[in-house]
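Hi there,

I know you've been waiting on this one. I reran it after we fixed the sequence typo, so this is the corrected version. Both the input and the resulting structure follow.
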Amino acid sequence: MKKLILAVVSIAMLAACQPKGYTVTGTIEGAENGKVVLQCIREGRPMPLDTAEIIDKKFTFEGKVEAPELYLIFVEGNQSPIAFFVENAKIEIKADIKEMQKAVVTGSDLTKVLNKFNDELPGLARSQELRQEYMQAQMSQDAEKMQALGEEMNSIMKNQIAYLDTFIGQNTNNALGALMLLNASSSLELAKFKTYAEEFKKNLPAHPYIKEIDTVLEQMAKYEQEQAAAAQMAPATEAPATETPATETPAAE
């Protein structure tokens, strides 16, 4: 009985220690004052949730989420966001107004996984260089260079799609994997997308991303049906073969 009581007390203490919501505190060098906007992502678009004042470079957001989600923080007047996963925990952000994309986020486990994903994404730095090089080749009308750069970019994209596919398959139990599946809708075949979607439904049935996955899945299935119907309606006849009359080059007089 004594052991049972101790176990119950331990569970109660553990539950009491679990955070009931999130607290996001941030310090932004170069921003003495102003406002920051907290946004979530819905159907691929940012949606404002809250605003906070920057006082002496610092700001705070407090709230509660039912499940971890990708949030963005924008400093008013700055178009470069801080992207991180909000979960019910104490999260700290340190950033510089000139390099917001290099913000350091601590206290969010999924943000660590997101950062690892970005760090290991094949060819990320090179693809950014290729865009600049392609624009220069385009301006100089260097067709040969443009073709070579295009082929290199296609190779990088294939590697990135394969990497994304593997990552989703290994993360069907978390919100980051679900978000990546939404981003991969144009890269994956319907059958594979559907297989992943079923896994996420089992593991994250109440997550907001599941509703969006269902919507995308319906759109993909509808598109495939329309393509199949169009293919059936297309005429199957081929143009009759015709002989091309031989032409002669006029002799120079």
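Quick highlight: The longest strand covers residues 45-55.

Best,
R. S.
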